[in-house]
Design goal:
The complex is a heterodimer of chains A (about 650) and B (about 240).
Chain A (H helix, E strand, L loop, with lengths): L15 H11 L12 E5 L3 H13 L2 E5 L17 E2 L11 H11 L6 H21 L24 E2 L5 H18 L3 E4 L2 E9 L2 E9 L5 E5 L2 E4 L20 H8 L4 E2 L4 E7 L22 E5 L17 E2 L1 H5 L9 H16 L4 E2 L2 E2 L2 E4 L1 H7 L1 H19 L8 E10 L2 E2 L12 E3 L17 H22 L10 H18 L8 H15 L6 H21 L11 H25 L23 H4 L1 E6 L8 E6 L14
Parallel strand pairs in A: 1-2, 1-9, 2-5, 9-19
Antiparallel strand pairs in A: 3-4, 6-7, 7-8, 10-18, 10-20, 11-17, 12-13, 12-16, 14-15, 16-17, 20-21
Chain B lengths: L1 E8 L8 E8 L6 H14 L21 E3 L2 E2 L21 E6 L7 E3 L2 E2 L2 H8 L21 H11 L6 H5 L6 H13 L9 H11 L10 H5 L7 H12 L1
Parallel strand pairs in B: 1-5
Antiparallel strand pairs in B: 1-2, 3-4, 3-5, 6-7
Helix pairs in contact in B: 2-6, 3-5, 5-6, 5-8
Classes of the chains: A alpha+beta (about 650), B alpha+beta (about 240).
């Protein structure tokens, strides 16, 4: 690991509130008559991808979109439950763009760029306007005006929501906008297609190789730039709240073509998920943290009570530990703080519920008091669908007995490094939504993922992609040797997956083992010894993978086993980078808790002088030896304070 | 729990399908799809091709999963997608017949996976409110009465899984369209396009779905409990236009 020149994000200078406006003015535009000469590829059609594709197509560019699902409407953005922030100040409770900006910077534990975060706060209000005009049925008050609630760590009510299905409604809005452009012929969409490789021509991103998942056929697609909106990499942990198909392959391929990968170890562990019930479980389900607005989190004070019916444990024997430890914020402390507190309680032997590997991993989230105060109808109106979901999975009724929750991997703040224009370090390659690292620092504030995906897609990418295109001559249609090279590479990789020397184990076998290594050593609390061990373990596992991976069937047909094997192969490499990143960051910040760097009372301890930078990793040709490139973070408008929620 | 499974296998859209028999030991807490995962692990280890089925979020919202279990689209537990069925729901049965959606407009791709892209094309025919990015007025300019917003939301929860089509004797997609029309046309923002129901229904017919003749089976199996009153709403709009 050597160091070189610090990275430049090309953030504009000047007063924060004028930067985006001024920057937009400085960017070039393409005249409407010329736009149809340019082609744009968008990979991934979740919130960021669908909104970017719809907006670019409306402007008049020729857009091609790709997704691995059978329809863009199924992207995992659909599962976001809680809500979307916007600094509308509809509650007149002192909210403003500046306050939202500050909350996000602070929520990210001062590891995000001021310019980007301010722009996001600024655009938040336009997103709501756009969504409402598209017919997104946000919750409303009896007056007919939009309803807001306060959400995860915020002291103002600025979160817009559509019952517990906000992500679904926003995604359908973007999907419908995109569908309109498909109908008008401005978007050519390819479902059930997975990106295999990036095509670079003269150093610039000019296309992709995709595999048609139905026929197995590989094909190449060229354009004047490529936009990756392929989501996060939480599935590296195997068990996560992500959909089963979510993967890192597109951004990992880009990384191997020179795109820097920023802050891979910044992964968010969400405190309120349904605990694991058995060894063969395939995924974890999130319960929106809006539940923490009315639910009270507790564990038995006495380990002997852990097996008892919670309803029979008297009040004085319950430990409402978040309220006790963080009186100002109580149950609404940020996600990382809540998650670590829950882990701490369970490690202490006070967990409840199913025993997994000899430990009970769960605490109670109790609605009894809220029902008593507000009535069952009000609570059901707010959380009915979440209660139903919980009951379906656990066969327990949360209105009759407390829920059980435990943290799970939920979101990845790390991703492809992008500059202020959302362009990666590969010329012409853009990244939006969870696939980039841009705005959430070391921890994402609740209800800001939907906001970021849509800000990127509706407002930022259309502007910055236009600026890029304005400086390009449309790509000539001819044979490029780089295309055949990428096609050959993609085919050879498939061949390798299908022809391991000693085929023995399934893709899921390796995925589960990788997940356990990462969860145990690169999860909520990390230390040097374990991380070094994890790196060694992953290297060995990877070797075993390429020796023993067993994929039945062939590559010239629909083969879900082959798809999974390809994704796991990429997670195996990314997993190591996550550990390398975690090891090099010798401080605790946001979700990243290094046990060597905690205060005496167990709070995270940042080292701003030594680690006030973004870690961007460069692929050197050898996965085990990435090169660290730093982007220093400057705080001109806020001063990094200690994140104190007590 | 021990089960005898009869699973539909079909190599490609043209091939003749058949039921393949498997026996499997499974825990009551396992989800239905986790049971299939376990079976697939076994098949792969034996060098046989895994059973193909659509699934993704596994929390009942993406609409990917689509199995007919013992004749019921999405299985026996009501208002629930396949991925949220648990083996404990089948404690009293030991033999399960697992099939794909059956409808002309949803051709089988392989095994238990069908092609539902017709739904995308129906949405493209008019299932949107045409507003340009950036053209929207301030969101609170136009208040929407809460009951209207709630009704729109109830219809908007459709996940596009296609169970309504799979269960319908006519293989009609009327409930799917009515849900979208009811969602968009109830809101003041969506009232300008009077032709929306006509355009979407015409596309439905062209895609090979049947028409509605009020069996109301769709309402019974809809995992999101979309109601047939959305069809009433749509028909009113259709005749008004």
């Amino acid at each position: 690991m050597t160091e070189e020149q610090p990275l430049d994000s090309f953030s504009p200078k000047g007063p924060l509130e004028q930067r985006w406006t001024q920057h937009k003015y400085n960017l070039r535009v393409v005249s409407p008559a010329n736009r149809k000469r340019y082609r744009v590829i968008v990979v991934g059609t979740g919130l960021a991808g669908a909104s970017a594709a719809a907006s670019l197509a409306e402007m008049g560019y020729q857009v091609k979109t790709f997704c691995y699902q059978d329809s863009p409407r199924r992207a995992h953005s659909i599962a976001a439950q809680g809500g979307i922030n916007a600094a509308k100040n509809y509650h007149n409770d002192g909210d403003s763009v500046w306050r939202l900006f500050y909350d996000m910077i602070k929520g990210g534990d001062f590891r995000a760029r001021e310019s980007n975060v301010f722009r996001l706060a600024e655009l938040s209000t336009s997103i709501i306007d756009q969504a409402v005009a598209q017919g997104v049925p946000f919750a409303r008050e009896y007056s007919g005006y939009l309803a807001n609630r306060s959400f995860g760590g915020a002291q103002v009510s600025r979160t817009f929501y559509a019952r517990g299905q906000t992500g679904q409604q926003l995604l359908l809005g973007a999907y419908q906008a995109m569908s309109r452009q498909v109908a008008e012929g401005h978007i050519e969409h390819f479902s059930r297609c997975e990106m295999q490789d990036l095509i670079k021509i003269d150093g610039k991103a000019k296309g992709i190789v995709v595999r048609d998942l139905l026929t197995g056929e590989l094909s190449s697609h060229l354009a004047d730039c490529v936009v990756l909106c392929t989501g996060g990499y939480g599935n590296a942990f195997y068990l996560s709240t992500n959909a089963k198909g979510c993967n890192t392959s597109a951004i990992w391929r880009a990384h191997k073509h020179g795109a820097l990968f920023a802050n891979p170890c910044f992964t968010q562990i969400h405190p309120t998920c349904i605990p694991q019930h058995g060894e063969l479980q395939s995924k974890l389900t999130l319960m929106s943290e809006s539940l923490r607005n009315d639910g009270r989190i507790w564990a038995p004070k006495n380990p002997a009570d852990c097996g008892r019916d919670p309803r029979k444990i008297p009040e004085q024997d319950r430990d409402y530990f978040l309220e006790r430890m963080y009186p100002a914020f109580g149950n609404l402390v940020p996600r990382d703080i809540a998650s670590r507190a829950v882990k701490h309680i369970c490690d202490d032997g006070r967990g409840v519920g199913h025993e997994i590997n000899g430990q009970k991993l769960g605490v109670y989230l109790d609605f009894a008091d809220a029902i008593k105060e507000q009535g069952a109808d009000v609570i059901n109106e707010k959380y009915g669908n979440l209660f139903d979901m919980y009951q379906r999975i656990t066969s327990e009724d949360p209105t009759q007995q407390p829920m059980r929750i435990y943290p799970a991997v939920h979101y990845t703040m790390g991703g492809l490094w992008v500059d202020y224009n959302l362009m990666t370090s590969v010329d012409g390659l853009f990244a939006g939504g969870e696939a980039n690292f841009s705005d959430h620092g070391a921890n994402r504030l609740g209800a800001s993922a939907l906001m970021q995906g849509l800000a990127d897609g509706y407002f930022i990418l259309p502007t910055t992609v236009s600026d890029y295109l304005a400086r390009q001559t449309p790509l000539e249609d001819k044979d490029y040797p780089e295309v055949q090279q990428a096609m050959n590479y993609s085919q050879s990789r498939l061949d390798r997956l299908l022809n391991a020397p000693e085929p023995k184990q399934t893709p899921d076998y390796f995925h589960r083992r990788l997940g356990k290594i990462l969860w145990d050593h690169c999860g909520m609390a990390r230390n040097e010894f374990d991380l070094k061990q994890a790196i060694e373990d992953i290297q060995q596992l990877r070797e075993q993978f390429w020796r023993e991976i067993k994929v039945s069937g062939n590559d010239k047909q629909l083969n879900q086993t082959l798809e999974r094997a390809g994704r796991v192969a990429d997670f195996m490499e990314l997993g190591e980078l996550m550990c390398i990143d975690a090891l090099s960051r010798e401080e605790s910040c946001g979700c990243h808790a290094r046990v060597e760097h905690l205060t005496a009372n167990g709070e995270v301890q940042r080292h701003d002088n030594d680690f006030g930078f973004v870690s961007a990793w460069q692929f050197t040709g050898d996965v085990v030896q990435p090169k660290l490139v730093k982007e220093p973070l400057h705080f001109d408008f806020v001063s990094p304070g200690i994140r104190n929620y007590q | 729990m021990k089960f005898i499974l009869h699973i539909w296998r079909q190599a490609n859209p043209q091939a003749k399908g058949f039921f393949e028999k498997h026996e499997l030991e499974v825990e009551a807490e396992s989800s239905f799809l986790e049971m299939l995962d376990a079976l697939n692990e076994r098949l792969i280890t034996l060098g046989k091709e895994a059973i193909v089925f659509d699934h993704d979020c596994r929390e009942g919202i993406c609409g990917s999963c689509s199995l007919v279990i013992n004749g019921e689209p999405h299985g026996r537990h009501r208002a629930t997608t396949t991925c949220q069925q648990y083996m404990r729901d089948y404690q009293d049965q030991n033999e399960l017949w697992i099939e794909p959606w059956r409808a002309t407009a949803f051709p089988v791709i392989k095994d238990l996976m069908v092609d539902r892209s017709a739904f995308d094309r129906i949405i493209q025919a008019g299932g949107y409110i045409p507003v340009r990015t950036g053209a929207a007025p301030e969101a609170n300019t136009q208040p929407v009465a809460k009951p209207v917003a709630d009704k729109a939301f109830d219809a908007a929860t459709c996940i596009g899984c296609g169970a309504c089509v799979a269960v319908c004797p006519n293989a009609s997609a009327t409930l799917f369209i009515a849900a979208k029309v009811s969602h968009l046309s109830s809101l003041p923002q969506g009232q300008l396009d009077h032709k929306r129901p006509a355009k979407m229904l015409a596309k439905m017919e062209a895609e090979g779905f049947g028409s509605c003749s009020n069996y109301r089976e769709c309402e019974r199996v809809c995992p999101k409990q979309i109601r047939t009153d959305t069809i009433v709403t749509m028909n009113k709009l259709l005749y008004q236009s």
